[in-house]
Amino acid sequence: MLDDDPTPSTETGTSTGARPRTHIDTSKPHSARFWNYFVGGKDNYEVDREIGDHIKEIFPGLVDVAVTSRHFLGRAVRYLADEQGVRQFLDVGTGLPTADNTHEVAQRAAPDARIVYVDNDPIVLAHADALLSSTPEGRTVYLNADLYAPETILEAAADTLDLSQPVALMILNTLGHVADHDQARDLVGRLMAGLPSGSHLVISDSTATSEGMIAASEAYNASGAVPYYVRSIGEIAGFFDGLDLADPGVVQVPEWRPDLRDPAAPASAVDAYCGVGRKP
Q1: In the 8-state DSSP scheme, what is residue 16?
Q2: β pairing state of 200-206 and 114-119
Q3: At what angle do helices 31-38 and 46-58 cross, to 10 degrees?
Q4: Radius of gyration, CA atoms only, the chain
């Protein structure tokens, strides 16, 4: 997560750069594969399933966090495309592709939508082709770049996105990898500073709101994987300072504009909070 070199991967219809060689370490759990296992994906290894099953024994509710967070992504993108007219999405910390990725949801609502995915994880990079389909009217690009270099991300994204027009910045279940909250806020602020008025920030993350979630976080961090730190609700809300929050504000993930037509969305409380804020 500390590589500052934004190497574009192959975009739809155009070769923009050589794909870097990737080395995938299967000796330790990995957050993208671990999350993939929890949402029912197949891109994971035994080591990821072992820690996943261990954490399920400690705190089964983490599976609901994973599933409801995925549903939130869909609802937030539909809200932005349908109700706010957003046609550009910058998804930082992409993770492994599953069903209903950002570009799929956005381009169903708006075929001309443009999406830039950003990650520097070799595992995600190895699966990037699955993120690169697009409608003929739209565009989808993957950047091999790093959260810790916001200005570099913005410079590279400007090859695909018009940064004079509103952009939805998506940072879902990623900021927990930044140990220091002030640093995480600074990174978010620098990304939003490069986006114009009318842009939106979309965040969801796990929260330290139950003993079970805290125990699950500690078990995961002890596994040898890159640590993931759960935060307070107030810390999640702090990412939206200076923005106009969309109703219902910063809430538990299932409570953000629930879609009653979705029978698969768990209605129970989860230890994860989210929000969508508009830049004035």
Answers
A1: -
A2: unpaired
A3: 60
A4: 17
Q: Which amino acid is at 100?
A: D
Secondary structure letter of residue 173 according to DSSP: S
Q: What is the pLDDT of residues 24-45, one digit of tens each?
A: 566 666 666 766 776 666 666 7
In whole angstroms, give the CA distance from residue 204 to residue 124. Answer: 19
pLDDT, one tens digit per residue, over 229-278 is: 999 999 999 999 999 999 999 999 999 999 865 655 555 689 999 999 99
Looking at the DSSP assignment, which residues form a beta bridge with residue 115? Answer: 89, 140
C-alpha dihedral (50, 51, 52, 54), degrees to nearest 10: 90
Provide the 10 A C-beta neighbour count for residue 155: 14
Looking at every residue in the chain, the average pLDDT score rounds to 84
Q: What stretches in the chain show pLDDT beneath 50?
A: 1-22
Per-residue burial over 100-125, b if 16 or more Cβ lie within 10 Å, else e, is ebbbbbbbebbeebbbbbbbbbbbbb
Give the separation between CA 89 and CA 112, rounded to whole angstroms: 12
Strands of the chain (E only): list them: 7-8, 88-92, 114-119, 139-144, 168-172, 200-206, 244-245, 251-252, 272-278
Q: How far apart are CA 207 and CA 228, in angstroms?
A: 11
Are residues 250 and 261 in contact, defined by beta-carbon separation less than 8 angstroms? no
Residue whose tokens read 């910045």:
169
CA 101/CA 97 separation, integer angstroms: 6
pTM score:
0.83
